[in-house]
Amino acid sequence: MSDPQLLLIETSSDICEVAISKGTQIIQSISNPSPKSHAQMILSMINQLLNNHSSIDAIAISIGPGSYTGLRIGVATAKGIALAKNIPIISVNTLESMTNQAIVDFPDYEYYLPMIDARRLEVYTTLYNKNLQQLEPIQNILLNEPNFTDQLLANNTFCFGSGAQKLELLEKPINFNIETNNFLYARSLLKPSLIKYLANDFLDLDTFEPFYLKEFYMNKKS
């Protein structure tokens, strides 16, 4: 099918957003910006979409890295709907998704450095060029330690995401163009998920899990 109808689910950050797409167009989206309300809101948001667009061919989910709780909720919801409707699931790496959106919104850079807050001075990150080609492995790094970003201070690099503001806490000079918007929207999933759909690149419903990147630990004070 050249114009599949997809359900897009983004729950990897504080913002919970879902959308329905047809081909390359977003038909409808619903967003809930309230932190820690994904579990209470996501099913009602999806039901609103499906009441208007009941026929979907696949589900696209932001797979991580990101919020442990948000990722678990998104994946569990996607699995339940996929099993009920007997449709496949497509995964999109969260850093790729947000970079895809950043390239659309800020197209005049050579390199794109997405950063997701991973507590303290740690971030999840990688490096893309303007063609969305990944140039470095996905990793969690401490910004106050030497890392691959040091090599790009003089280059035309756009640094963005929830972790980008941490660069301003460092003593070393930063020549990046910094934007703290996280660029995590359901619509950001569309381009990469459509490519995977047309290539029949689907997940195994029985075995796939969120991409946490590092082990979860619980703050006993919370």
Secondary-structure topology with pairs:
Blueprint: E1 5-10, E2 16-22, E3 25-32, H1 38-52, E4 58-64, H2 68-85, E5 89-93, H3 94-105, E6 111-117, E7 122-125, E8 128-129, E9 139-142, E10 157-160, E11 177-179, H4 190-198
Parallel strand pairs: 1-4, 4-5, 6-10, 10-11
Antiparallel strand pairs: 1-2, 2-3, 6-7, 6-8, 7-9
Tell me briefly what this model is.
The chain is built from four helices and eleven strands; from the N terminus they run E-E-E-H-E-H-E-H-E-E-E-E-E-E-H.
Descriptive account of the structure:
The protein starts with a strand and ends in a 24-residue tail after the last helix. The protein has 2 domains: 5-94 and 184-198, Nucleotidyltransferase, domain 5 (2-Layer Sandwich); 95-179, Nucleotidyltransferase, domain 5. It has 4 helices and 11 strands; from the N terminus they run βββαβαβαββββββα. The strands form 2 sheets. Strands 6, 7, 8, 9, 10 and 11 form a 6-stranded mixed beta sheet that branches. A 5-stranded mixed beta sheet has the order 3-2-1-4-5, sandwiched between helices. It is globular and about 50 Å long. It is an alpha/beta fold and 222 residues long.
What is the assigned CATH homologous superfamily of the largest domain? ATPase, nucleotide binding domain
Shape category: globular
Question: Which sequence of SSEs, written as H and E, runs from N to C?
Answer: EEEHEHEHEEEEEEH
Q: Number of helical runs? A: 4
| Overall radius of gyration | 17 Å
Q: What's the CATH topology name of the largest domain?
A: Nucleotidyltransferase, domain 5
Terminal CA distance: 47 Å
Q: What is the residue-averaged pLDDT?
A: 85
Biggest beta sheet attributes: 6 strands, mixed
Weakly predicted, low-confidence segments: 216-222
Estimated helix fraction: 10-25%
* CATH hierarchy: architecture of the largest domain: 2-Layer Sandwich
Approximate strand percentage: 25-35%
